[in-house]
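Run folding on both entries below.
>entry_1
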Amino acid sequence: MHKVLIVDDEPMIREGLKTLIDWNKNGFTVVGVASNGREAVEKQTELSPDLILIDIRMPFMDGLQAIEEIRKTNSTCHFLILSGYADFNYAKKAITHNVDGYILKPIDEDELESYVERISAELRKKSETQVNSKQTAVLLRDELLQQLSAGKLEQETASSAELLSLLGPSAKCYQLLLIEIYSREHSLTMNATAKKKLVDIIEEKRFGWVFSAEPFIGVLLKDYVLQNGSREQMRGWIEECCGTRVRFTAAASEPVRELSELQAWADPVHNLLKQRFMLQGQHIHLASLYNSTATAKPAQEDELSIENLAQRLYYMLDIGSREGIDKATLEASERICEHDSSEQFVKSSWAQLLTSILNKAATANPNVSVQDDLLMITALYLAHHYNEMLEQVQQRLFALTEKINRRDSTSVLKQMTDFIERHYSENIKLETLAELFNYNSSYLGKMFKNHTGEHFNTYLDQVRIQHAIELLQEGFKVHQVSERVGYANVDYFHSKFKKYKGVSPSSFKSGSSK
């Protein structure tokens, strides 16, 4: 609504003008009244009316003097003069002050409404022009800043007077910030909603300009350097704009003195955001000009054995070592990322690794349901960041080891013999157990000999031979038994069996004589 100020020294006329015409219908509201010219000048400064109805002859300061005083600071306000005198000199002076109309008293309602309608139309047109002009400027500024953030703005344009005028007063330093927001809900309005809220914060505080840089939200910061407290403050603002359901990762250039210098930072900032999976979420990361080309570590040529990593991690789960799980998880993480740190490869590798562990656990432990624990694989594919995914994997592995490790706490040597009993068919060695239980292999070998009365390899052979006898008596063939108890070579199995039992394996087959 446009604002009207009524100025007349007669109270009845002031009150009558408030209701003489329907001001609201014409887009006006009466915001105040004044009884003389001096008061009119004060009220104009206080209320900033769009239209002033003012009498000419008043005490202290007449209407023309008041108009002349107001025109010194305001050239856009509209005036309608009210006068009981049809004096040409008054009208002539009024014209020099750019007055919209001269109405004689007693005031004709139709004449006043005609003037008000015309002034309302002018104000409306002016307002629409200003809005259109502002919208055009915003669109043009957005387009130029989007080109700048992409490194595609022509050098002449980057330092042109046109762009500088769109950006307001020059700054001592500029900084480019790009924000990527994401959510499992994938709302189409996320960017628009967050951008609007960020505009209200950044532009209201005059810290810079917010613009669309699809798929990111861009911010051109002016004299607001992202360091220490200000970086944390900006992080808080972005988090506030995103809300609780939407996550973000942001990358920023270093501050530069000239706007055109930001062109060189376009690729480093974009490349940093391409590594979003390997970055920390809810954080503003600073790009570097010296490490801007690689988006992920290139794949290594040496073969990555997921099965070996899974086997080691499963051993740690099997003996219930949380410290060992931590260590083996980090080791697997380093090996996978050294080979290829792209999001697709990392998630795929961990999915294979966890599937192998779960299959081993389900085979050996009735407490484990593969269907239930496969949820951890689904969850890792939904992770936005690697550090969050790895933490989630570790927590789920801790829960899994509790499920498969419901044995009473025993000594290390008892744990070792139990481990051999469960894994005798695998290629286990004393060095394997020494690493699992964090012992020196020579020292552990001596401890094992004192505890069992046998060397490690002899004890392992005897466990295997005993299980081989059970399988032979169940009707399995010799070559099948050899493989099942951990001897890949059947001749080697024959020699071991005869060494410990004095007879060939076939002597123990079902139906054979003693």
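>entry_2
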Amino acid sequence: MNTEILGILAMFVATLIVAVPLGKYIARVYAGEKTFLDPLCNPVEKFVFRICSIDATLEMNWKKHLTTLLGINFIWFLLSMFILLNQGWLPLNPDNNPSMSPDLAFNTAISFIVNCNLQHYSGETGVSYLTQLTCLMYLHFVSAATGMAACAIVFNALSRRQTQKLGNFYNYFLKSCTRILLPLSFLVSVILSFNGIPMTFNGKDTVTTLEGNSVQISRGPAAAFVAIKHLGTNGGGFFGANSTHPFENPSYFTNMVEMISQMIIPFAFIFALGYYLKRRKLAWTNFGVMTAGFLCLVIPTIFSEINGSPTIQHLGIAQPTGSMEGKETRFGTVASAYWSIATTVISTGSVNSMHDSSMPLSGAMQLLSMMINAFYGGCGVGILNYFIFIVLAVFISGLMVGRTPEFLGKKIEAREVKIAAVIAIFHPFLILVGAALSSYLTAKDAQMGWWFNGNATGWLNNSGYHGFSEMLYEYTSASANNGSGFEGLVDNNPFWNITTGIILLLSRYLPIIGPVAIAGLLAGKKYIPESAGTLKTDTSTFAIMTFAVIAIIAALSFFPALALGPLAEYFTLSK
């Protein structure tokens, strides 16, 4: 077997081995049970609640949860905008990086608040150390904790027989930070800092190259930033090149650490659901469906990158290492291909290779990973997205077999199905409308004025199928809260900053509001004990049904767009 394939198998297995006990620990944290971090965390949490005048024992209904969630996120937006617009004169700016323009600050603030981290700037020159730490890295923590708290609300709602009281949002949120994200981030950042990632407040360093040239090299407090960017499935790069940069990802070992870091919490939440509901078989069923989907995406990508370009093959030129364009030799083709699907499936958005240089079939798989947006997913929100497909699968299965649709003892009725259908349709709506608008303006060679300071065709460094893929990828990444990009697109201008910013807002909060609302409605219904006529949702038959629902919705929604972009490019190269 190819040794590179053994490397990625080791990453996946190591993630799974750690994720199962971590999932059990997460379930205990949200259930309020005793954990080994209680002596350290209890006093800290009590102090925070006391100075903030928060009663963490006061339970909220699902509407109060959502009001609190949205309100605190709006405050973070205002604070982030202030820092980004004024970083030029604020302290901790040794490289004298300027303040952001209003449209770029708008996009950046929203992007980091919603856990997307779609960066239309370069980390070395676009932000100060103060911004990196007190704004962006802080948002790495709280945006991830927001999704995790929302998932805890759903766990609570699904576990209770009949109630409107679903715990306290502040309690779930703070515990997500203090008991899960902070300890893991500290551990990973120590490992990374001892393996070559800088952790300093000094500015650029000047070195002399072998040619005798003087070069300035950016550095900074990167180790802590890189740790939480992966653990929180954020993905925003401290440096512009993200995890292809040797100061963000120096070696194959750090590549493994970062790969496991970004997958471990999404994996763990799948098992946390099983432990919290005391339905471990359901957790393994869900994990099986997600893993089957992940394999359907990652296997074609790996083999596409190993085989390389058909055009080069037709010229009789050997490609012994596969397609290495846009990849780092310290990682290789297979690990880069694996990362590209993991980061798009999980919605981390960090990159250890340039996706714009991937083979067309790989680009199609990367796009499809974000378009489906339900296999593993981000911190907490991956389960929320998958929950929508469970509701739809339960409803359709009930119609097919003539049984009342039920999930965990609660009837799935018209309101829940309508909410799930709207959320499922809204994701492709945002992507396709955005891609259609940008394609129309490009085709018309529209004069954009202040929106772009030139013609819309100036957006693209590539024309034809690949140019369309670049625009499609940008809106897909924004809607999936991913943040990666086909970097042939010139995106730092008012048009892309504002349109993707709007999509970022809608695509983050509506998919949280929908599942929490459904779970809240189910929690208020009378519990119906399981019987011989109950449709079981932890069987292989229901797993296949759920996979089929996901595949059908994705195919109907996205196949035409994929056919116009990466698939058309693939068949053109294969002539």
